[in-house]
Write a structure and sequence with these properties.
Length: about 160
């Protein structure tokens, strides 16, 4: 196991992603990614991440087909003005920068490294007010810290 992805969702507001990677026999958190869902970049990035999490290691993968599927399924059907070029650029960024340890493409195959996935939805009681990431940052930090602590207690094999 190379690490973990800790995904926290505040429906309609934001998605935070903590990437945890093994470094020098210890698991350490990389810089958090926050997708704000009231922005194009946040909508595209979070959609791509959630769809990539559905794919299995070794499955057939075509970047143009994947981009087209995302565009048709999420953005054209919802009449959201996001171009396939924006989707393609965000996917390229995932593969070459933000998620390189977790996802890649080799030839026509999708490569998904072995990692733990922890997903958590924030329970929002007052649905009418805007949820601010800053209000939940400490709660998300605590959850990530506890998961990293548990990962570091697992004996490393080999």
């Amino acid at each position: 196991m190379i690490g973990a992805l800790i995904v926290v969702v505040a429906a309609g507001q934001f998605v935070s992603v903590d990437r945890v990677i093994r470094s020098n026999q210890k698991f350490k958190k990389q810089r958090r990614i926050i997708f704000y869902l009231d922005s194009k970049a946040g909508q595209v990035g979070s959609t791509l991440l959630l769809e990539l999490l559905k794919l299995t290691n070794g499955s057939e993968f075509s970047k143009p087909k994947f981009v087209r599927m995302i565009d048709e399924l999420y953005f054209q059907s919802q009449k959201i003005n996001i171009s396939s070029g924006e989707i393609n650029e965000a996917l390229s960024r995932i593969f070459r920068k933000t998620m390189t340890e977790f996802f890649s493409v080799s030839g026509r195959s999708f490569v998904r490294s072995p990692f733990m996935l922890h997903m958590h939805e924030l329970k929002i009681t007052n649905k009418s007010s805007k949820i601010n990431y800053e209000n939940f940052k400490h709660k998300i930090d605590d959850e990530s810290y506890n998961i990293i602590k548990k990962l570091n207690q697992i004996p490393i094999m080999g």
